[in-house]
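Q: A reviewer asked whether we had any structural model of the full assembly, not just the individual parts. We don't, so I'm hoping you can provide one. Inputs are below.
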Amino acid sequence: MAAVLSVDNLTKSYRSGDRTLTVLKDITIAVAAGSTCAIVGPSGSGKTTLLGLCAGLDVPTAGDVVLDGVALRSLNEDERARVRNATIGFVFQNFQLMPTLTALENVMVPLELRGERNAHFRARELLQSVGLGDRVGHYPIQLSGGEQQRVALARAFINQPKVLFADEPTGNLDAETSERIDGLLFELNRAHDTTLVMATHDLDLAARTDRIIKLRGGVVVSDEESERREMVDGLLAAE
Amino acid sequence: MTQDAKARPSWLFKMAWRDSRSHRKRLFLFVTSILMGIAALVSVGSFGENLEKAIDDQAKTLMGADLMFRSLRPYSPGMLAVIDSIGGEQASEIVFGSMAYFPRTRDTRLVQVRGLEGDFPFYGEVETTPSEAAQTYQTGPFALVDETLMLQFDAQPGDTIRIGVNDFIIAGRLLKLPSEPPIASTFSPRVYLPARYVQSSDLLQRGSLVNYRVYFKLSDETDIAALMARLKPKLASERVNADTVAERKQQVGDAMENLYRFLNLVGFIALILGCIGVASSVHVYTRQKLADVAVLRCVGAEARQTLFIYLIQVAGMAIAGSVLGAALGVAIQFFLPEVFSDFLPVAIESFVAWRAVTSGILLGFALAMLFALLPLLSIRKVSPLLALRASFEPNSRRWRDRVVWLVLAAIVVTTGTFAASQAGVWYHGIIFILAILLALGILAAVARLITFSFKKFFPKSWTYVWRQGLANLYRPNNQTLVLMLSVGLGTFLITTLYLSHQTLLNKVTFAGGGDRPNLILYDIQPDQKDEIVAAIESAQLPVAQEAPMVTMRLQSLKGELVSTILSDTTRDISRGLLRWEFRTTYRDSLFDSEQLLAGEWIPEVASDDEVIPISFEDGSAERLGLALGDTVEWNVQGLPLVTRIASLRKVDWQRIQANFMVVFPKGVLEAAPQIYILATKAATTQASADLQRTIVQRFPNVSMIDLSLVLRTVDGFLSKMSFVIRFMAFFSIITGLVVMAAAVITSRLQRVQESILLRTLGAARQQVVKIMVVEYVFLGALAALTGLVLSYAGGWALAYFVFDSTFLPSPLPFLAMLLVVTALTVLIGLSNSRGILDRPPLEILRAEG
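A: Here is a predicted structure for the entire assembly that you could use as a starting point for your response.
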C-alpha cells in the first residue's frame, strides 16, 4: 500500500544557551495509508517531537516530512495549518478542548474553519457515535476526563482526516476509562479508514497497532511490522 | 496540495463571541480602563463646544457694550468731542487702586475702585445681593462691594466702607459681572461707587494710576469696523485703546480655547494611562489564551484567523468602553460649568456636542486598539506545538517583529498628532508626549530594575511569608510593571501639581522673607512723604526703600514718533508699552534686586545735558525693539526729554518693593512733578495691619500692599487653578486605580490557584493574607516612591527652569503620599482575595475554573 506519511532523514535540534541539543537524528520512516502505528520509547526519546514534526506542528532542522503527498518543509506555518485542517486529526494527552466552547462547538471547529455550513449535523452525529449525544451543550469543565477525551476524538475525526495523530491519548485517564477510549479510537479509525500514528508509553495499547517504532535517544532502535505480538511480549519481558 | 481553509468572516465573529463566554467580566476590565480617559476627553470637548457657542451667543455681554475706549489719562477736549460724535448710549467709568477701610472691623485692604456713570453694562446683568442693589447704589453714598471682600472681612450690607475721605454704606454684595470671570475678583476685589463721589473723594491725585473707560451702546446699523478704521489715527495719537465686541470675543475665545486644550491634554493622560491598562490586561489575557490559540492552530486555523478572533473580542470591548466613556463624559460635562465657574466669563448652557462625542469615541477606540494590538500580535507567533508541550517556550523575539514596530509608530504618531493639535504650539504637544513617555519609560525601567534586583539579590534567609511575597514581584505574569505605571504615574501627577503650588507660594514668601521689605506704600504725594516716614518710624519699623516716581510717556523711539509706530499694525512691537504711562525713578545706584547686564551705569549727570543717559530693563527694551545706545524721547507731563539707553538691567520683579523699567541718573528729574513709593519691613502681620490702618486713616490716597495680601491673592488663584487641574487629574487617578484593580483581578485565577495550593499544603489563612500584604506593600510603596522621586525631580525642574525659584521640598507630603498610596494599593490588592480565603479550596476551584 502507498505511504500516506513518509519521513526522510529527519533531524531536530534545539539551541539551549551555547549548547545544541539534538532530539531526533536522521529518522526515516514511511507509514502506509490505512495502517496503525505506535511510536514508543522512554521519556525524552523524541516520541512527541517526531509526532509534532509529522503533523506539521513544527519544522525540522534537517530532512523532510511528506504528508499525503505534500512536502511540509516547503510550506510556511499558515500553509501547514491548511494541510492540518485538510489532512489530519489530532488527539492530545490532556484533551486540549477549548474551555469556553461547548462539546458540540469544540467538535465543529475544524469544519467551521473550512467554511462548511451545517457542521453541527456532523458534529452531533460524531458525538452520538462516541456516546455523548446527550452532552452536546456541556462545557469541558462539566465533563469527566474520559468524556472530554471522547469529545476530542469526535473533533479529531470530524474533518475525515487521512492521518490521525494521537499523543498519549489515555495518558491522563484511569485504566477502565482508558480501555473504553482505546476501543473507541480503533473503532473510529477503522470506520473512517484513517491512518493512525500514536505516541505512547502504554505498550498494551501499542500492541494493538500494526507496527511499533521504538525510539531511544532520538534514533529509531527498532521498527517492527510483523510478529508484533511476540515483539511486545519481548518488550514486556524486558521491563 | 490541500484544500484551502476558508472560514467565513461570520465564523470569526461567532468564534470570538463563543470564546469570550467565561471571560466577559475580565474583558469588561478593558472597558473600565479606558472609560475615564474617554469621559475626560468627551466632557472637556463638549464643554469646549458649549463654551464656544456661549461666547458666540453672548458676545456682547463679554464686554457689556458694543465698543469701549480705555485711556490711562483723562480724555483731552478733542477726544471728548470725538466720543460725543460717536453717539449712541454711553457710560463712563474711572478705575483705580485704593485702600478700603472697614470701620466696624478696622480692616484695610487694597481694592479696585470703580466710579461708574451711566447704565453700564448695556448687555447682560449685574448680579448682586440684594438684587436691586445694582441700581440702588447709584442713588446716594452707597457702594457695591465684591463678595470676596465682604467674606474676607465679614462685612454685611448696611456696614460702612471708607474709600478716601468718604464713607459709603454697602448697598449690596457684587456677585457677578457679565463681562468678567469671577476669578478677576481674586486679584483685585472691586468696589463700585457712583462716579460723582469719586471726583470728590480726594483720591485722584497727581501720579495715581487711573484707567478712564467709556462704554458705547450703538445702534444695530452702526458699522463698528468702519468707525474704528476712521478713528484709528485719532485714537493712536491720543494713546486711547479701543476694544470692540469682535476683538473681545476673539481674545476670550482664544483664552478659553487655550484653557480647554490644556484640560484636554490633562484628560489625554488618563486615556494613555487607560490604554496602558488595556495593553496590560490584554497581555495577561493573551498569555492565558495561548493553549486555546495553539489548539486552533493545530486544527488548521491560520495565524491571522486566530488573531482576528481575539482582535474582534478586544474591538467589541473597546467600542463598548468608548461608547460608555463618551456617555459618562456627556454626563460629566453638565457639571463642568460649575467646576470652571471661576474662570468663565459667560453663562454656559450645556448641550450634547456630537462632534466631541464622536471624536472622543474614535480616538479612544483607535488608541485602545493600537495599545491592545501590541500584546495581541504575539498570537500570530503562537506555535501549534504549544498544544503538545505545555512547557514549550513561545517565541520571545517579538521586538524583531516589524508589525510590532509599526504599531508602536502608529501609537506615537496618533498620540503625538493629538497632543500637537491640542497644544497652542505644535512642538509643545510633542514635548508633552515625550515627557509622558519619559515618565512612563522611567517607571518601566524602575519596574525592570526591581524585578531584576529581587531576582538577583533575593533575601534567601528571610521567612517564608516574606520570600513568597517578594517572589511574586518577579514571577511570570507579575503585576510589577503595570502597577508601577498606573500607581507611579498617578502619584507623579498629583504630587507634581502639589509641589508646583507650594513652590509658587514659597517664591512669594521668599520674596518678602529675610530682611527684605514686605509692605509697600505708594501714590505718596511729596508733601505727605515726611509725615509717612515719621509714621513708619514711630511704629518702630525701618524705611527700607524710598523712591521718587515720575510719570512719563514715550514720545519717539530712535527718532520715529510713537503715534506713527502705533498706526502701523504690521509692526511686531509691544503696543501696550508704547501707550504705557511709565513710572520712572532717578537714583545714583542699583538696587540689590537689579543687575547690570550691558552698558555703563551712570549715577549722575548735569541738568543741562542734552541727551540724558538712562538705564532700561532688558525685557521692556526688547519688547520695544530697543538696544543699547538707542535714542528714546519722552513726554514728561508735557515737556520733551531726549534720552539714550546707556545701560540695560535685569530686574527681579518678584520682590515686594518698587521696581522700575526705566531709571534716570540723578540731576535731571528732581524738579519734575513726582510722587513717592516707600517700602518697609513689618516683623509681624499685626504690625503691618496696624501701620496700614494708621496710614489709611491719615492719608487715604496712599495705597498699600503687603506680603500677606500677595500671598493670599496668589494662594487664592492657585487654589482655584489647582482645583480645576486636580479635577482633571482625578480622571487619571481613577484610571490608575481601575488599571491597578484590573491588573489585580486579571491575575485572580493565578492567585486563586496559588492560595489554594498553599492552603492545601497547610498554610494558615493568615499566612496567605500576609504573603499578599507583603507583595502589595512592596508594589505600592515602590511605585509611590518612584512616582514621588519623579515628581520631586519634576518639581525641582519646574522651580528651576520655569518658576525661576528655589525648590524647598517638604518631607511631610512625601511621607503622606507614600503611606496613602501604599495603603490604597494593599486595599485594592486584598479586595481581590475576597471569597477565596474563607471557602473550601475545591469549591473555589470549581467556581473559578
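A: Points you may want to mention in the reply: Residues 543-680 of chain B form one domain. The first strand of chain B starts at residue 67 and ends at 71.
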